[in-house]
Structure to design on (493 residues):
């Protein structure tokens, strides 16, 4: 008896839980908003952007003066060293112990135009010798101002100034493009569930309808109004309708699970799709779409980056394959004393000028080969970019054309669905009063199902084309505004 009571309570609790379970009604815009905020793809896109953001921050920071402190807190040496013995006029090895410490504080600024480095520094060194001769020595450079410059070398700073801002701009555009790709994917999941729900609803209605028609057929067969063959056909339709309902239920669960997983919702969520209304007619200009694509599409920016990097490599190999010279000049003060205070008293002027030259005499064509390889890679990059941009433009033109055509298809599909619904209801009523045969009824039902699916698919293709164009151009043609607003909302930058 207790077991029976527990079962009854469990059933009642299950019914209560199911009653409490709320069905979420989601529009297409709401699905896209959730996906762009919570999906794994959105999380990945935002983190990829943040990586590029911090790389650009590092580049900007490197353009500012840098303050560095280099220290050798302690260096202890115990070894033999060569010393000159003036009495015997020869070099002798003597045992020596020394303790050395040093610190250098430097302020450096890289110059993009010249590729050189301007610096101001100050140094302090301390040395103590142990052994036969013991003494302390402090060496100081209170202040020194200098400049180092590669004379004929490769100016990396100049190229970084061209490439790094472009890379960051591409990262911003890529983030928006990835979010628009999420919109495309969301649209596909949305309409897959919409089609599954509509098919399920139609299958339920068809089960009720076929059962009703079979019951009417049995009554009419008693008065020989229809043949035995037509009655069996109605029975077969009723059985097939139930099987179709089971299959539709399976497809509905699959489509529901796919969308829930994509949106990272609770696995027990129940979603009801709210189909968007017929969209406003928008005629897109292919030329205008190409204009925004060339300006905003990250693939075009990526091609510009590849071209700059190839040109950078050509100049780098060209510079390093010839004479390499560097120049360094500094002016300051220095002093040496046995105590700390004396090391800063009456410092002497220190002037240093150095020129370094490196001339490749024989390298068996290594540098020349690298330079030729870089030039060939530049030519390959140019041809590849030309081909890729041509394919991009063709793809954009095709998408725009599909979008413009799809709007006409939606109007036709909507009209066809309205007619199919009217024909089916009329034929169904005529069959009930014996003025239409079973073949006409079946045909009108199939036409209604086909018209409904065609209308949903037309809507689906329209919105997929619409969000694909947004992804390709990063421009909203309905609101007539650039999608950089999305970037500002997401990042707050």
């Amino acid at each position: 008896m207790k077991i029976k009571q527990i079962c009854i309570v469990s059933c009642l609790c299950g019914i209560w839980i199911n009653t409490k379970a709320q069905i979420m009604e989601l529009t297409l815009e709401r699905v896209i908003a959730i996906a762009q905020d919570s999906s794994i793809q959105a999380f990945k896109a935002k983190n990829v952007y943040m990586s590029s953001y911090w790389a650009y921050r590092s580049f900007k920071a490197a353009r500012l003066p840098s303050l560095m402190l280099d220290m050798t807190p302690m260096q202890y040496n115990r070894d033999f060293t060569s010393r000159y013995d003036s009495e015997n006029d020869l070099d002798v090895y003597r045992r020596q112990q020394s303790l050395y410490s040093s610190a250098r504080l430097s302020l450096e600024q890289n110059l993009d135009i010249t590729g050189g480095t301007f610096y101001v520094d100050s140094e302090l060194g301390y040395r103590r010798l142990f052994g036969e001769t013991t003494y302390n020595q402090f060496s100081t450079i209170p202040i020194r101002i200098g400049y180092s410059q590669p004379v004929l070398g490769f100016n990396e700073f100049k190229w970084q100034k061209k490439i790094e801002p472009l890379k960051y701009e591409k990262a911003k555009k890529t983030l928006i493009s990835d979010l628009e790709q999420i919109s495309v994917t969301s649209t596909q999941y949305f309409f897959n569930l919409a089609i599954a729900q509509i098919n399920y609803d139609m299958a339920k209605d068809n089960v009720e309808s076929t059962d009703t028609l079979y019951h009417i057929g049995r009554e009419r067969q008693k008065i020989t109004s229809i043949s035995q063959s037509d009655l069996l056909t109605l029975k077969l339709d009723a059985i097939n309708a139930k099987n179709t309902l089971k299959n539709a239920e399976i497809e509905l669960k699959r489509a529901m699970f796919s969308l829930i997983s994509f949106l990272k919702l609770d696995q027990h969520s129940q979603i009801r799709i709210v189909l968007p209304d017929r969209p406003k007619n928008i005629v897109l200009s292919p030329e205008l779409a190409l204009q925004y694509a060339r300006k905003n599409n990250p693939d075009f920016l990526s091609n510009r980056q590849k071209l700059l990097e190839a040109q950078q490599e050509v100049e780098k190999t060209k510079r390093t394959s010839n004479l390499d010279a560097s120049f360094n000049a500094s002016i300051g003060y220095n002093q040496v004393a046995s105590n700390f205070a004396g090391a800063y008293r009456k410092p002497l002027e220190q002037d240093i000028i150095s020129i370094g030259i490196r001339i490749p005499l024989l390298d068996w064509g290594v540098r020349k080969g690298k330079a030729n390889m870089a030039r060939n890679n530049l030519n390959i990059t140019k041809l590849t970019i030309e081909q890729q941009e041509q394919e991009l433009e063709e793809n954009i033109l095709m998408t725009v054309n599909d979008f413009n055509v799809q709007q006409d298809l939606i109007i036709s599909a909507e009209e066809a669905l309205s007619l199919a619904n009217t024909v089916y209801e009329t034929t169904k009523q005529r069959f009930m009063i014996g003025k239409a045969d079973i073949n006409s009824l079946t045909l009108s039902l199939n036409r209604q199902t086909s018209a409904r699916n065609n209308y949903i698919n037309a809507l689906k293709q329209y919105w997929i084309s619409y969000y694909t164009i947004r992804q390709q151009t990063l421009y909203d043609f309905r609101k007539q505004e650039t999608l950089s607003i999305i970037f500002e909302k997401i990042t707050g930058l």
In short: Confidence is low (pLDDT under 50) at residues 1-21. Residues 156-222 form the longest helix (67 residues). Residues 431 and 437 are 6 Å apart (CA to CA). The two ends are 68 Å apart (CA to CA).
